[in-house]
Amino acid sequence: MLVVEKNALSEEIESYIEKYGDDRSALLMILHEIQKKHRHISEFAQQEVARLLNIHPVEVYSVISFFAFLNSDPKGRNIVRICQTISCDMHGKRQIVQAIERELGIKIGETTKDNKFTVEYANCLGLCDMGPAMAINDRVYTNLTPEMAVELLGKVK
Amino acid sequence: MENKKTMRAPVSQKPHVVPKPEHPEHIGGSISIELNEKKISVPFGTTILEACRQNQVHIPTLCHHEDLCVAGVCRVCVVEVEGMRTLQASCAFPITAPIKIKTTSNAVRRARKHIIDLILSEHYGECYSCFRNNNCELQSLAKEYGVDHYNFGHVEHPRYEVDNSSYSVVRDLDKCVLCKRCVRTCIDLQEVGVLEAIDRGNNTHIGTFLDKPLAEVICINCGQCINRCPTGALRANDPRDEIWAAIDDPKKHVVIQTAPSPRAAICEEFGMEPGTSLTGEMNTALRRIGFDVVFDTNFTADLTIFEEGTELIARLYKALVQKEQVALPQFTSCSPGWVKYLEHFYPEYIDNLSTAKSPQQMFGALIKTYYAKKKGIDPNDIVSVAVMPCSAKKFECNRPEMVDSGFKDVDYGLTTRELAQMIKESGIYLPEMPRSHFDDPFGDASGAGLIFGATGGVMEAALRTVIEFVTGKKVEDVFANADIMPVRGFEGVKYAELPIKEVGQVPDLIKHLIPDWNWLKGATLKIAVAHGTANAKKIMDDIKAGGKFSECHFIEFMACPGGCIGGGGQPIPTTPEIRKLRAKAIYDEDKSLPVRKSHENRHVVEIYNEFLKDGPCGHLSHKLLHTHYVKRGKYIA
Amino acid sequence: MENQKKKRTGPVIFSQYKRGDAIKKLLSMSREDVLFELKDSKLKGRGGAGFPTSTKWMLTAAAKADRKFLVCNADEGEPGTFKDRVLLIEFPELVFDGMVVGGYTVGAQLGIIYLRGEYEYLLKPLEDYLEEMRKDNLLGKNILGKKGFDFDIEIFLGSGAYVCGEETALIESLEGHRGEPRNRPPYPINTGFLGRPTSVNNVETLAAVTHIVMKGGKWFSEFGTSHSSGSKLFSVSGDCEKPGVYELPWGIKVSELLKIVEAKNTKAVQIGGASGHCIPKSQFGRALAYEDIPTGGSIMIFDESRDMLHVLKNFMEFFLDESCGQCTPCRIGNHKLLEGVEMIEKNEYTFAHINKLKDLGRTMQVASKCGLGQSSPNPFISILENFKDEIFTRGNGGRNGK
Q1: Degrees (nearest 5) of the Cα angle B413, B416, B419?
Q2: Which of B252, B626, C302, C371 is 20 to 30 A from B240, alpha carbon to alpha carbon?
Q3: pLDDT tens by residue, B560-596
Q4: What whole-number distance in Å separates Cα of residue A117 and Cα of residue A77?
């Protein structure tokens, strides 16, 4: 990481501290912001957060590793989450997954070579009445067919 | 959301804040409960576990540890509380109402058995190939509950790689039961913060920052996690094989030095109650094992008093008389865990660390120079081993700068536990050994060197000498029996002031540095003692903020709670009671010794006459007995 | 999809309400008045545990502290539950006004809505909504001119952890820790967020409170049964013609509900989400009520074509993934139960072992640290009990046998 990049990241994190405070209870909101912007929380970012909140880096990592939507390793620019819980499962989750895997040429849990997509499973998205459902980043799509799912991916930049 | 002091550990792992009445006799101070149908009265807020233990009701535990806050995660200690749908973890349940408890009901027995079965099903490895065999809390539980087969299967392949990266601490997660004692030790007790639970669900494991090898993170090697691990998931990096090889090699002259704390604790490894010193017995055993000579690290502890004491006097002289900028207070540097802690967390203060090496490393440098020359042995053929109560000493002897003799000054650090193992392997039952003395030319050392093992000991040893040097009076005239009580005991941070009312003659040994003591007359020497890095942190933060400790002159820091007697290489388990008994053993032995002050150790005086001729902090001692430190900082690249 | 606002009507929750009305009414009510109405209403927590709301608020109100908090638990993670989503999208006025009532009653100045990460798309609309409330002085200082009536609401976004629906885990994560449930006692009503008294309430509970303030506890208690007052929102999914959220009075029979949602050839109904119980046809006459089958409202319907072992496996995989991993029974126990399911799947089981696992499940129910581990064996035990004929004949010519 270049020094310039590091400085920019430090400044960014400091701005979050200003917004949410320097108490540990601000941790998850800060991690959210970083995750949202960078799609992952880098080694350096984790240590900066730890420094500014006066906690240990391992505590930050521990929290990140606990939550499904936070990650330390870079992922694709767009994260596709397919609901794997039973209601969606019963309404054709498997076909959706197969279609997406075929179309993108990757398996669940993987990232496309161009870094455009990471595809993962999600536990219950709370859309059981409209399954199968999936989320692309923070937007959700329901009553999917394999064809629709693939079409939606095509619309993503 | 709110600014307040950051909480270090999750509240889920903190003891409950139940406001306790001041005295059990006060109104509401006690509660009548029924324990297994027996009516008893307990103070308000007592946990069920405490109540049971006070009433001779045995409750098995795994995650509970006396030194640590409550976790309530292993669930082995569950009991039945009448009226509650679920079983309650007795370690985490404060009694605040007149409850009825059952500790042996069918549901309780079944639950405990199930929990033990579950842990065993994921516990990789076999007892007979584990260093904790016969001293393992999980093994004991299995025996207690009559486990004779694996009810829910048993893992056949390891899930994790053993982390061997550190010189000091080895982590084998396949034996981990996720009691989180190490996490609570690292974050709460020591405030080092290297270990935490990572991931969740069945993937939960104890890990470091980004799951890096231990050697790459800011571990201070104190080994306190090892002492509290209920199983063999944490152990010290064991050099026994290399040492045996050296002993078996007829060309090698294998030297062993023994620190004060192992001798006060090794009895525990042989089934004895804590608190018996086996100094003489250990000397004999070491020779029988095959070590060529046995030296007493207390000798270099005495030497440390000269070097570190002279350094302090020089710093004070510079600051008070010559008005030069010097780093004060001076910090002790005997504890390698503390040194690394400072290098990581307060690197801006490394100038405050005494440059004097730890006794182990001083001895290392002398053995391969002074001793080798005196005995006419090629230092190349000397293998220098140090028996230490410490896991950080293994790291210390591998620090790249520790080669001032022209060789690796100390080849291997051996813990008390590993030494006990070697003794057992030799077919020796230690308590039965005849006693013998340490070998010359270093001989038996002073009681001052011995008490280095307990918190406050370095300070007391230093004061015994400083008081006599400066005032010309006997310590005994100031403190009865030369026991300097204000610096003893297990209080986390101790502070004392010693007004210097009168001064005497400057002893010959340091006359070349200071002409007289008049500049100290009327001054007040301010000192402090801290043990456990969490307490050290308190002092350091106070110094940073310009508080009262910043006005101290000399501060003793020990990384481990209780000092070296509670070190990460000592026998397992450790509790406040055990540490108290080990300290008592050391102080009792000190009392019985003919020489109890470092400056009265004739061998030390001899070495200054014969070898380190330009005196303490002179040219040669600077080369061999002093060192420098690294500003490590907290960032992990 | 966040724009799909439907006009729903119902007897209680979905009955008429205008934003701010309950807050206006509060101006002439004391805390005791609110508690009195709540007690009269016999409202129980709608998250599933069914703790009386009046008691929870009375205890929080009675606790002494410099600050108190009211948390709205919108970490709706139970598989098959989506009523909170509907409430937050279509009826935010009920939820937020209920929070203001709660804050007023327990003496909290700050309300936090813990919104599950999966509902991030609701963040913006809800924040806009709160901003409007502030403009209208329904939030902020001296609400509607009443001196000292200060209350504001913050939204906290979860990050994908089912266990954070457990109130102490939720508080842990609010404090910036792993979502690991705490030891209880002490309870959040005494030692909650930042060590202060905290009342954690379900979204639906708060919505019900708003109506109770408007129309009185008595009115509310006239719906439902004697032990389960009011109505309940049911999240219905699975094999039926009309999945969705339904407001129905407590006490309704499972068979009646199935008729309403037009379910045909129903074989099994999982009530209460993954952590609930699965009942067969023979029990469809049972009532959905605290005194018979208590539930947070998730109804998952399975018709004759479904493989119940597959359903069970899906649930167990869910728990394995979502266990926080701190306590032994839940961390390892769920793993063992899933292994058992896989053994049956591969026809490599013995009844002795399966019975041992059921026994283990019963230990998990009582020895786990929190509700997750205490309820995760429910589907294992109930599905294997209620559908054993189907499941254990798989291998030798059973309906799913090959």
Answers
A1: 80
A2: B626
A3: 999 999 999 999 999 999 999 999 999 999 999 999 9
A4: 6
What's the gap between Cα C72 and its chain centre?
Answer: 11
d(CA B464, CA B277): 23
B166 min Cα distance to partner chain A (Å): 17
The tokens describing B11, both together, are 């509240």
Q: How far apart are CA C399 and CA C402, in angstroms?
A: 8
Q: How close is the nearest chain C Cα to the Cα of B526, in Å?
A: 38
ipTM confidence: 0.95
Cα separation, C354 vs C349, in Å, equals 7
List all chains that touch chain A, counting a touch as 3 or more CB pairs closer than 8 Å.
Answer: B, C
Taking the model in full, what pTM does it have?
Answer: 0.95
Contact C300 A122 (CB under 8 A): no
Q: Out of B107, B115, B197, whose CB is closest to C178? A: B197
CB of B1 within 8 Å of a chain A CB? The answer is yes
**Average pLDDT rounded to a whole number, residues C142-148:** 95
- B322-341 in b/e burial notation, b at 16+ Cβ within 10 A? eeeebebbbbbbbbbbbbbb
CB atoms within 10 A of CB B33: 21
Are the Cβ atoms of C160 and A122 closer than 8 angstroms? yes
Cβ atoms of residues C203 and C77 within 8 Å: no
* CB-based contact C366 B85, cutoff 8 Å: yes
To probe the interface with C, which of B80, B87, B118, B181 has the most C CB atoms within 10 Å? B118
- The answer to whether residues B18 and C186 touch, using CB atoms and an 8 Å cutoff, is yes
Retrieve residue B558's tokens. 């020990």
Select from A46, A55, A56, A72 the residue whose CB has the most chain B CBs within 10 Å, as the one to mutate to test that interface: A56
Q: How far is CA B29 from CA B17, B19, B20, B163, in A?
A: 15, 10, 7, 49
Q: How confident is the model at residue B4 (pLDDT cuts 50, 70, 90)?
A: very low
Please name the residues in contact with C33: beta carbons below 8 A apart, sequence gap of 6 or more: none
